[in-house]
Structure formats: C-alpha cells, structure tokens
Amino acid sequence: MMYRIIADAAMVLHFAFLAYLAVGGFVAWRWRRTIGAHLAVAAWSVISILSGVECPLTVLENWARRRAGMNGLSPGGFIDNYIEGVVYPGEYTNVARLGVAVLVLFSYVGYVLRRQ
C-alpha cells in the first residue's frame, strides 16, 4: 500500500511540475522571487527533451509501481503514459511542446515588461 501511495504522489508531483512549467512564468509576474524556480524548471524541461534523460519523478514512480506489484510506465515515461494520446494526439507532440515553449516565452516577455 505504501508503494502505491509513493507512486501516486510522484504522479501528482509530476502533473504539478508540468503545470508550473506552463504557468510559472505568469506566477512570477505577481511573485517575482519565483522566477528563479521557474527558470530551473524550464531549463530541466529543455535538457530532458533534448538529451532524453529520464526525469527523477518518472524513475521514482516506476520504482514504486513495481514494488507495489504494478506495471511500470510505458517506455516513453510519464508524458507518454498520462498525457500523450489523452490530452492531445500523439502525432501532435511537437506542436504541444512548441505551444508550451511559446507560452513560457510570452510569460517571460511579460515578466520583463512588468519589471520596468
């Protein structure tokens, strides 16, 4: 039971991470000190996509799921398992990535303009 809770907690944290990636730049418009955290999240996301390095939350969830007697995530990890094909069709992955990148860049432009 405890491993299932750990797996579920990792999944929830992963969703929160992705939500913060999408809107964290806008959060920084109000709470300026959060921009460093968002820059770290954005940097990790870019590194993960470009290098293919597996997210520690995915590793944690897979470990806990297997300990709980469940199947691990699909080879594509968290995104392939919970988002791709559910939130958007798999063939639109690059469009979704571009959309998030544009959203983040827009939030950063707004952040800079609001600081002046």
What would your notes on this structure say?
By secondary structure, this protein is mostly helical. It has five helices and no strands. Helix 1 (about 1-30) crosses helix 2 (about 35-50), helix 1 (about 1-30) runs antiparallel to helix 3 (about 55-65) and helix 1 (about 1-30) packs across helix 5 (about 95-115). The longest helix has 29 residues, at about 1-30. The mean pLDDT is about 95.
Q: Kindly name the structural category.
A: mainly alpha
- Beta-strand residue percentage: under 5%
DSSP helical segment count: 5
The biggest beta sheet reads: none
The average pLDDT is 94
Radius of gyration: 16 Å
The first-to-last residue Cα distance is 52 Å
Query: Could you estimate the helical fraction of the residues in percent?
Result: over 70%
Q: Count the strands?
A: 0
Shape: globular
H-E string: HHHHH
Low-confidence stretches: none
